[in-house]
Amino acid sequence: MEISIIVPIFNEAENLCPLYKEVSEVLENTNLTYEIILVDDGSRDASFNRMSELAASDQRVKVVRLRRNFGQTAAMAAGFRSASGEIIISMDGDLQNDPRDIPQLLAKMEEGYDVVSGWRKKRKDPLSKRLPSLIANTLISKMTGLRLHDYGCTLKAYRRSILAEVNLYGELHRFVPALAHQVGARVTEIPVNHRPRCAGASKYGIDRTMRVILDLMTVKFLLQYSTRPLQLFGKWAIGAFLASGVTGATTIYMKIFEDFNMNRNPLLVLTAFLLFTAVHFIAMGLLGELITRTYHEALNKPIYAIRKTINLESGQNSRLELKERVG
User: For residue 29, how many C-alpha atoms fall within 13 Å in the half-sphere facing its CB?
Assistant: First the structure.
C-alpha cells in the first residue's frame, strides 16, 4: 500500500458520500495504490451506516468505529495505527479540506520532506474562529521553534516511519509536526484550498482553544525537558533560593539597623515560604529524573530516532525497526 487517507468522522453523515467520491477521483488519477480509513468517533447520526455502505461497495474503504466520542486526537491515532500506507494523509470529514490538494502534498513529499502541512491561506471561516487560531499558531510556533502558519489544518501528509516515533494523546494531533521535528523530521508547509462548510455543524468552540493552550504547555515541556526535568525545576528552585536570600537579608537588615521586630515583619514569612518552595521544586525535579530514568532504562526506550541504516541484513533491520517502535 502506497497511500493511506485517514479521516476522523463525528456526525458527518451528509458529507461522507461526496467526500468519498472526491477523494477516490483524485487518488485514481495518481495511479498509486491507496486505502481510505474512516474513523467513526462515536457519531450519533447515520454516519456509521454511510461508512458501512461505502465499505461494502469498495474494499479500499476501511472503517474503524470507536466505542464513544474520544476526540479528534484519539480518532486520528486509531487511524494511524490501522494504516498500512507508506505515506499517510489526514484530512477532515467536513469537506472543507479539498482532496484536489493531495497531489500537491505528495509532490512535496517527493522533494525529501517527512511532513507536509497544509496552510489554509484563504480560510473560509468567521473571524471568531480565525482570530483565536492566529493567536494559537503564533504561540505554538514561538514555543516549539517550528514556524508554521496553520498548525490547526488537518490536511497533512506524513511518512509512516515518522508517525511511528510520535505518541498522541490529549489534543496533540495538531502538534505532530513539532513533535516530528523534535526527532529530526524535515517539515514544510504549502498553501491549500479551504472551502466553506456546506452541511453538518462545526465541532469547534472556545473550550477547544483552552485545551489547545494547556496541551501547548505539555508539548513545550516534552520538547525541552522530557529527558531532563531537573533542569526545569532546578531553575525555579534557584530563583526561589535567590529570592529567599534577598528577603531574608532584608529582614535581618531591618532588625539590626531599623530595630524592626522580625516577628512582625511579613518578609520573614515570605522568606520561609520561598525556601519551602525551592526545596519543593528540587524534590519535584529529582522525582522527575527518577521517572525519566525508569522510562528510558527499565523500558529500554531510546532517546534517538533512526532515519536510515546501511549494510544491515534484512532480518537485523526488521528487528531494529521493531525495537525502535515498541521499545
Answer: 12
**In terms of Cα–Cα distance, which of 309, 304, 308 is closest to 324?**
304
Whether the model pTM is above 0.85: no
Count Cα atoms within 13 angstroms, Cβ side, for 190: 18
> CA 261 to CA 161: how far, in whole Å?
67
In angstroms, rounded to a whole number, what is the distance separating the alpha carbons of residues 1 and 93? 22
Q: Above 60 in pLDDT, residue 105?
A: yes
Q: What are the residues whose beta carbons fall under 8 Å from the beta carbon of 191, sequence distance 6 or more?
A: 118, 119, 121
Question: For cell 491507496, what's the residue?
Answer: 34
Please count the structural domains in the chain.
2
Separation of first and last alpha carbons in the chain = 25
Q: Supply angle C-alpha 268, 274, 280, rounded to 5.
A: 140
Containing structural domain, residue 274: 229-302
6-28 pLDDT tens trace: 999 999 999 999 999 999 999 99
- The runs of H, that is alpha helices, within 42-82 are 47-57, 72-82
Q: Is residue 135 part of a domain?
A: yes
Does residue 310 form part of some domain?
A: no
Q: What is the pLDDT of residue 288?
A: 78
SS3 at position 184: coil
**What distance in Å separates the CA atoms of residue 42 and residue 94, rounded to the nearest whole number?**
16
Q: Are 200 and 130 in contact (CB under 8 A)?
A: no
Cα 313 from Cα 16, distance rounded (Å): 45
Helix-helix angle 47-57:13-28, to 10 degrees:
30
Query: Which class for 277: exposed (0-12), middle (13-18), buried (19 or more C-beta within 10 A)?
Result: middle
Alpha carbon dihedral 179, 180, 184, 189, in 10-degree steps, equals -110
